[in-house]
Design a protein that fits this description.
The chain starts with 15 loop residues before the first helix and ends in a 32-residue tail after the last strand. It has a 7-stranded parallel sheet. A 4-stranded antiparallel sheet has the order 8-9-14-11. By secondary structure, the protein is of the alpha/beta class. It is elongated. The longest helix has 21 residues. It has 2 domains: 291 residues, Glycosidases (TIM Barrel); 119 residues, no CATH class. The chain contains 12 helices and 14 strands.
Length: 440
């Protein structure tokens, strides 16, 4: 079995509770599929011949793949952790292994990219997670064989556990083991309890996600920003355009403001945003990715207090429960301690009004805005049911998202409902019937 020099972690062990405070991370999708430029599922979606696909290893030079560049980008973006795809569903390993020649070590690059990323993450102070697909389309027998034949199943499962054991033995310590690709089995089929016990017998501190059929230490909603109910540690897994692996035809990049919206949404429900980077086949990072992430990172330097270490500030459509937040037509809101933050994605003009705040505002400020860009001191005008902040500039002073910070006399509570006053009898906040509305 290959050995990798252990790299000590500069951070304390990552518990599920500490994970919930990280708030922002990067997931990197890179592999043979990146050479094709048609997304990470090309082998499956296009039914490419396995030998034809295997021949791509001769072109996999990874000449512009630089783990330090990736990690520096994550840090400059304000991210706290990085998850790297050691093997996607195609079965191509980006690490050194004794179990298969279908690996970056036997490709044109002859490099252990996983070891490079782990070492770079440690140098840059990032927590590190290793993504690994349970399903493997290249090795035989595959998942379809395992469904049909008991002997094939035993071989398939044994090899899956063997890969995971090798991974956590060779690359230690890591912080997160990120399962994916759980077709075609549930937790019993994957022998998930045994799987989790195996990896934790080697690295007891590991936290694992819930994609082997068991709940794991945290949930991973993908393509949406909805926290699990009841709440548990979670991260929203999102693309920066519409693809995970590099797709040469996908130019629908999210704006920095849209990334801020996502960060505010997860922050309000004490979750994380895991945002994707898909390098090109040569390992280089598309320029729009760099520009968006660096712009958001600069914004976080100015306004990060409204994103990091926030409290839950959520609302429910049908039941009040323990929710103490609400929504606003100018943009999302977050809270921390006695502070309420309004992320004014749609600029209100010289006055911003807010109803339903059950706290007294002591002070209002614009985060990260120099005095020269302000119209003057902000004026707070508050009645029992309405707050007005006057003296805002005519135009938003922050090019990404201006944040209005309100210092309150106690932790802020917001309660509006769908009426012009809050009824004095039990009532639904908005919807007396089950709702078809998507909300966050």
């Amino acid at each position: 079995m290959p050995s990798n020099q252990p790299t000590s972690s500069p951070q304390p062990a990552l518990t599920p509770q500490k994970f919930s405070d990280l708030r922002y991370g990067m997931i990197v999708h890179y592999g043979l599929y990146s050479l094709l430029g048609r997304g990470e599922w090309a082998l499956n979606r296009e039914r490419i011949n396995l030998e034809e696909y295997r021949s791509l290893t001769a072109q996999f030079t990874a000449k512009n793949f630089d783990a330090d560049v990736l990690c520096r980008l994550a840090v400059s973006a304000g991210m706290r952790y990085l998850v790297f795809t050691t093997m996607h569903i195609d079965g191509f390993r980006l690490y050194n292994t004794v179990h298969s020649p279908f690996t970056s070590m036997h490709a044109a690059c002859h490099r252990d990219l996983t070891a490079e990323v782990i070492a770079a993450a440690r140098r840059h102070g990032l927590y590190i997670g290793l993504y690994h697909s349970l399903t493997n389309l290249m090795d035989q027998p595959d998942g379809a064989d395992a469904l049909e034949n008991p002997a094939a199943y035993r071989t398939f499962i044994a090899r899956t556990h063997q890969r995971l054991e090798e991974l956590v033995r060779c690359y230690t310590p890591i912080d997160i083991l990120w399962y994916d690709g759980w077709w075609p089995f549930n937790d019993r089929g994957w022998q998930a309890q045994t799987m989790n016990a195996l990896v934790r017998s080697i690295q007891p501190h590991l936290i694992v996600n819930g994609r082997n059929g068991l709940p794991g230490d945290f949930s991973t909603p993908e393509g949406h920003l909805s926290a699990p109910r009841p709440w548990r540690p979670w991260e929203a897994c999102m693309t920066l355009n519409n693809s995970w692996g590099y797709h040469q035809g996908d130019h629908e990049w999210k704006t920095p403001g849209q990334v801020v919206d996502m960060l505010a949404t997860v922050a309000a429900d004490h979750g994380n945003l895991l945002l994707n980077v898909g390098p090109r086949g040569d390992g280089s990072i598309p320029q729009p990715t760099i520009e968006v992430l660096e712009t958001v990172g600069q914004w976080l330097e100015r306004c990060g207090e409204c994103i990091f270490h926030t409290d839950r500030f959520t609302y429910g459509l049908r039941e009040r429960g323990d929710h103490r937040g609400d929504w606003h037509h100018h943009g999302p809101m977050t809270a921390r301690g006695n502070s309420l933050y309004l992320l004014l994605r749609r600029w209100p003009g010289r006055e911003m009004a807010l109803g339903g705040l059950q706290s007294r505002v002591l002070k209002a400020t614009l985060l990260g805005i120099p005095d020269s860009a302000k119209a003057g001191p902000l004026q707070v005008v508050q009645t029992p049911d309405r707050l007005a902040i006057r003296g805002l500039p005519d135009n938003p002073p922050d090019p990404v998202c201006t944040v209005l910070a309100l210092e309150c006399d106690h932790p802020p509570v917001l309660n509006l409902t769908g009426g012009m006053r809050v009824p004095r009898v039990p009532h639904p906040p908005y919807d007396p019937c089950p709702s078809d509305l998507a909300h966050s």
